[in-house]
Amino acid sequence: MELVIAAAIGILTTSGVWLILRSRTYQLIIGLALLSYAVNLFIFSMGRLRVNAPPVLDGSAPVDVAAYTDPIPQALVLTAIVISFATTALFLVVLIVSRGLTGSDHVDGREG
Amino acid sequence: MSSAPSNLVIAPILIPLLAGALMLFFNERERRLKTVLSVLSILTQMVISLSLLRTVHLDGQTPALVYLVGNWPAPIAINLVVDRLAAVMLMLTGALALPAILYAMERWDKVGPHFHSLFQFLLVGLNGAFLTGDLFNLFVFFEVMLAASYGLVLHGGGLQRVRSGMHYIAVNLVTSLIFLIGIAMVFGATGSLNLAEIALRAEWLEGFSRVALHVGLAMLGLAFLIKAGMWPLCFWLVPAYAAAAGPVAAVFAMLSKVGIYALLRLALLLPGTGAAFGSRVIFIGGAVTLAFASIGLLASQSMKRASAYFILISSGTLLAAFGISTPGGTAGALFYLLSSTLAVSAFFMLVELLEREQDAASGVLAVTQEAFGDSDEVDEEELEVGRVMPSALAVLGIGFTLLAMVLIGLPPLSGFLAKLSILTAVLGPGAGDLATLEGRRAILVVLLLVSGLVALIAMARMGIRTFWAPVEPFTPRVTVMEATPILMLLAMLIALSVLAGPVINLLQFTAADLHDPGRYLNAVLGAERVPPYAGREH
Fold first, then answer.
1. A28 vs B contacts (CB less than 8 Å)
2. Could you tell me the pTM of the whole model?
3. Considering CB atoms only, which of B162, B170, B185 is closest to A46?
4. The pLDDT value given to residue B451
5. A26 found inside a domain
6. Is ipTM strictly over 0.90?
7. B412 in a domain, yes or no?
8. B525 closest CA partner among B61, B67, B197
9. Is-contact B267 B276, C-beta < 8 A?
10. Domain residue limits at A35
11. How far apart, in whole angstroms, are the C-alpha atoms of residue B268 and residue B265?
12. What does the buried/exposed string (b/e) look like for B40-59 if buried means 16 or more CB atoms within 10 Å of the residue's CB?
């Protein structure tokens, strides 16, 4: 499982970095989205990968901490997803405005 | 100690948040109401920050006031911490925000929607970033600040703003992702997000965890240095700041200082030993930034670009001085931070008044004003409010000269005192224990003096071109309301020069606190819960 997650993060990051270095605004925004997925997975994996372990404590039985996964990265990922979602939406609006004003989808607003 | 002052700690976040949210309920036509709310909110914040500063500074027992959000016990709770540094930064934010909002009243808050709300949310982010004692909360407040700044940097619209604003947003989105990677690595290595707890645990880390922590801190540092504008991470800054509206650029002078603040806080706190983390990189980066910004300043044709380069000069000087990493140098650099931020902020507004007559941007302004409707109403109001300033050119000229003196570092104003105190810390008595840093000291001294000379040349050229020998003679039409904020900032700078003794005294205590992280750790980890719940633990 570690290998799969690591490969997924690596591939997403590589694609994301390649895309944000491209010159079209659409590629830029997709690149940012891919990068943010990679970062979210990375945060998630920093809480150590566990299968079949719940993050929320069950109060009815005596608590054995080792049976649970770390809940903090999950909360962090949730916040990070919301923030990157909002900023991506905002950025999309700016891209459309820029397209309208300059008539070009180049990141500098002009070709070449 | 009574619980009242520690509840005040959260007020600088709540007040602008409520004020900004409240203003969303009112139509754009209720501009006067919004302005009153804005000014009231900023004034309240200033009073509260002043009382926090007094409490923290005068009470020798508690180096920091801690507010435990939700009243959870100390290392678990998300905490807000006011120490001297945070309180000083809060005061500075208020001191910049008030003139900026007064300046915007005359003209800029009419050219786009929700200016006042965005401005208040920017203050939420700034104040929160200074107050928080938690790494992830620092990220959240950074994002609040950035989200508001995205709106503000585009305020007024126009091709120039959209183009440079898009670069600004793209760079900052990538920065946020780097910030998150850093947080995740620090959390993975130490298992905590509380700055104080991370600092404690960092000392005991070994092997791979230690490496992971250092890589994580380096990623965080990268994110902060992009915000602060260290070369070679600074190319986005000048176009974005030069294109932003005057009052927006004036308050953005504070945004780059947030990066510097976070860097200073983490570098000195986290290794837990008092020796700054990565001080060599910070020093070299600062020195190169200073050199780069000096060349950029000489090369810039427009005054707006020049004022953006002054931000970089200020960042470079601060980073280089912090890179020396001694309490004396840090105190001098903090004084320089106060002086240069106030001066650059005033300079942005002054430059706009001078350049808008000659500038193509004023055409854009007229168009956007029309696009947002009711141009007749605007005209009426301008007649009503806008009393034209008599002998505006003379007032602006004197303001320009005084600001130039501060920015260059000529006596007797605060810019000189700031540079003098940095130089004293590097060269003067007591600097003997710095023998190992011989090279850094020499470079810093040379760069400080050369950058002063370069600033002198650039400012003299700009002054002559604008006031003495303009290509086309012009009389700027400046209203009293537009000149007042600049005069306010000038008054603050003069007050800073006159009261330099007590201020430097305060900053020396601040620097001593920073270089002795134990005091911060004790205050945060020893924070007690509010009574009704505290008893139940036993």
1. 170
2. 0.89
3. B185
4. 92
5. yes
6. yes
7. yes
8. B197
9. yes
10. 2-51+69-102
11. 6
12. ebbebbbebbeebbebbbee
